[in-house]
Amino acid sequence: MKKILIILIVIFIATVSIIVSLKDNYIEPSTLMKLQEKYSKKDSSSVDHSKFALLQKKFNKPQEVTEACITCHNKRHLEIMQSNHWNWEREEYIEGRGIVKLGKKNAINNFCISAAGNEKSCAKCHIGYGMTKEGFSFTDPKNIDCMVCHDNSETYMKANEEGGAPPDTLNFTFIAEHVGKPKRSNCGVCHFYGGGGNNVKHGDLEQALFEPNKDLDIHMAVEGKNLQCIDCHKTERHNIYGKLYSLSSMNLNRVYCEDCHTNTPHENDIINEHTLKVACQTCHIPTYSKGNSTKMYWDWSKAGKLKNGEPYTEEDSLGNHTYMSIKGEFVWGRNIKPDYIWFNGTATHYLLGDKIEDTSKTLTLNSLKGSYNDPSSKIIPVKIHKAKQPYDPINKILIKPKLYGDKKGEGAFWKDFDWVKASEEGMKNANLPFSGKVSFIETQMYWPVNHMVASKENTVKCNECHTQNNSRLASINDFYLPGRDRSSIVEFIGKTLILLTFIAVIIHGSFRYISKKKLIKRGEK
Amino acid sequence: MKKVYIYKAYERFWHWMQAMLIFFLALTGFEIHGSINFFGFEYAVKYHNYAAYSLLILIIFTIFWHFTTGEWRQYIPTTKNIKKYLNYYLFGIFRNEPHPTKKTVLSKLNPLQKLVYFGLKTIIFPGIVFTGLLYMFYRYPQRHGIGAINIDSLQTIAVLHTLFAYLILAFVIGHLYLITTGTKITTNLKAMITGYEELEDENEKENTLKEVKNGRE
Fold this sequence. Notes:
heterodimer, A: about 525 residues, alpha+beta, two-stranded antiparallel sheet, B: about 220 residues, mainly alpha, about 5% strand
């Protein structure tokens, strides 16, 4: 018998240890190592532009540089003129309304509201020259600004309020001789400053990413692999992969972490299984806005206050504007835990001129679609930017005010501080009705958080979601989450049963104890 | 009175292994449930799964053992003597009355035990194992999977699994108390450890299945 026992124990232990060791050895050993090897190699350019005689001359205007580029790269300008970066719009299919042209040209947001009508200032972030309110030739290749993306000399810049043109004082020859693939600095010069200042819009894209450390972003860290934007945002014929849902609505042309990392990158099967319903970003970006603050709330209704007839600004201790006469009142945030929503890659938008159905509710300008039951949905982290912005209470449409103006008297809010005049000018420019009344409505926008990826040691821990108290996913209630959810009936039945069992044990046990003592006493007598 | 080898080696091994695993599964399981905090959620899940695999292996071996030894017959429920046992546990036990029937190698369990263990073995253990397996191999609805075997929600599985866990926990509490109702408080515990228990003389083997009203002493 003893022998059998020993044999059984040995078999038992052996089987268990085989299962345990099999599980632990089931590692995709190479994906991450291959990636690390791949991105350790330095990219070197195949040509040295400074050796080309064509570029060794004085350029007086930036357009001359473009002409020189097109001399050799004689079809690239056609690609550019197909791109969103150039056109500021693209055809998007929006559920329920069909195909619309959507982009910066016509979009409305709850930051500076709208570029249209304010082009001279906003075009500082357009990849062209000469965009003014009088119009812009989207068909003239000479207006393409090659340098803003391809300058590797770090000396190129665009001028303020010049329709996208650089200052004439730049050394265009030096820049033209030092062009190459875009770096973080080329992309960041626009994308880090969206909304009128550093990190205003995204929260996960800001100037600290020019030279980030590993705490800020594990991929782009200078002391790490130092990835550039285009390493993930792969580009084919000037079509850059990746997009943001403030201006997009279709599940197309996206960049996924899985493109490099595969969808089963973890050693643990249970965590790999999460990837069916949880986007990588959800766990791997525990907080955003890790460097500088980002704008969380923008109250346009407070704009226009003057001191001694002059506009003024107020700042908090970190140097963030808390009030600007031209823009209103702001709330900023740093190191923020994202909000979480289901997302299937499609969105609907409030478009300029849409009727607001219920003006007492917060109006969502870009609704991201998705739910637990939708197999293509995943949970993603988002920044929710709220605002109070002007609308026409009679026509029930959002107002696109004229903000920027060259001088007083044109109706521009930033010069005249008159909402009615600014709205009248702006709505006229958009060919929309205006009743003459201006009111303010609460709006919100969803900004998916995709950058500032943490190191694997600093990812979101299991029990930050799988918990009853303050679960990160507390707001997503359309599914059962272990550790967070429970059935109140079963809890009641289970706890009552255990309590009753205990009571029965205690009563029965004490009766036994008492009766035994009595019997012993009787026996003694 | 004679010392009888009543619990065989494998039986004892199975009992204590199962006891340990149930304790460990309860500890890790109720941590996953959010009732306690001990290993940390991630490890609780990991260990719970390992313990579950171990229990499955143990169960497979034990089913084999039950059928090869014929021990499964011990668990066939019977209504015979049930009233007497209810009467004994509710009243007789306080008057120091003897157990209504004798314990023998061929009939180790009294009718109440038979009923409870039969329920455990046919409903509660299969229930928690089955929901546990579904929980473990649960897959989210996948577009490219076989639609018919998709489970749309974890909720039913998880809630039933929790219900069975509560039932087992209640059983364990009752079990731990009831093992003290032997001849002496530690009689049953000692028997499960050593395998030997002092029972009625072997000569009376024929009478063992008969009810014996009078005391053993």
